[in-house]
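Predict structure. Chain length: 184.
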Amino acid sequence: MAASLIRCDRCEKKRLTMRLQRFTIAVLSFVFFGLSAIGQSPEENKKVISRYLLDIINNRKLELLGEVFPEKFVRHDLNDSTDHWMTVADQHKRLSDLFQAFPDLYYTISDMIAEGDKVVVRAVWHGTQKNTFMKTESSGNRINYLSEIIFYRLEKGKIVERWTQLDLDGLFKKMKGEKENDRK
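Prediction complete.
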């Protein structure tokens, strides 16, 4: 009888150990997977991108770039298949140069889709070329509709990667005053 009590006591310890292990795994899973996603729901990621395009860019609040970008991030340009590590200061300079060429530039968002840590935007930018841009002298021409597709990947509420496909052909034609083919 004493032997069976010892076996039952061992069985009970084993059951408690297994329950504790399961509980520990559940807690750790929540911490690593659940808490890491807090602040990063697709809807919250869309808010970060909307803020970047519609508030920071459209309102020229470049001092706020550090709120939506980490100190270093990756920019993938799909037009020429290049990848660049950028800093907030680099992004500030790029946007300042863009605003120098197109002082009245602004974005509108046509579509925005988010899933997980990624957000894709079909955006349109508008502006009047007043200074040289991409080695093209100022024409004074108005760019009323320039399509851009941008993919963003976010971590902890900041843009860590961005892929851009800009209609460069349409941009150069508009800057030079050429008519684009009619869209049907």
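Summary: The radius of gyration is 26 Å.
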